[in-house]
Amino acid sequence: MLAKLSRAELDELEACTCLSEAEIVGVFAKFRELGGQHAPLLDSHLLEDVDDEAQKQPTRRREKRVAAEDIVKLSEFELNPLAEQLCKTFSSDGSGALSFEDLLDLYNVLSPKAPRELKTQAAFRIYDYDGDGFLNEDDLHKLLKALSHGPGLEESETLSDEDIESLVHRVMAAGDVDRNNRLNYSEFRKIMNRIPDFPARFRVPIDS
Q1: Is residue 185 helix, strand or coil?
Q2: Can you list the domains of the chain with their CATH numbers?
Q3: DSSP letter at 4?
Q4: With 70 as the cut, is the pLDDT of residue 53 above it?
Q5: Could you give the residue ranges of the DSSP H alpha helices within 63-157?
Q6: pTM for the full predicted model
Q7: Is the dihedral of CA 197, 203, 204, 205 positive or negative?
Q8: Which one, 27, 150, 161, 196, has the greatest CB density within 10 A?
Q9: What is the largest CA-CA distance in the chain?
Q10: Which 3 state secondary structure label does DSSP give 11?
């Protein structure tokens, strides 16, 4: 398994993310420190002797993902009430464990340099707990419950069930334009555009 990224892979990752080379290397170092193992794609030209065309498609050598329980212990996530949901959302195989590319995608979205639209799209996916492509009242209940009962909060900062219920109804009343008891992405985007400091809050540092 790779102990470092190749020049070609670094250039490609820098071109398709908001992250600098140093930041990409930093994420890779975190991934390795957590026990992850990364392997690049095997190009089809390395499989010239294979007869089956399907097997000639670029594929990836065996790699080891990092468990969500290890990701959430990182200092930048340990007080984040949505840390486990972040891992679930960005896990490409749905297990909650992250490959290097998954982890890089996560840090890319949470970078201060990421555009608002990218952050809004990611937030919508994260808040969509049941993964149906919409935010319904149950999604919002789970979100507000997590945010108001997260680690590090004082009892005075938590919301009661009645407070959460009231907030959910207010959000739906303000954002559910077509009155179908759920928010689509367009409706959610309009709500988030009313929060000027959303991009500044939706971020984590890479070096900690």
Answers
A1: helix
A2: 7-38+62-109 (1.10.238.10), 116-201 (1.10.238.10)
A3: S
A4: no
A5: 68-71, 83-90, 100-109, 116-127, 137-148
A6: 0.86
A7: negative
A8: 27
A9: 67
A10: helix
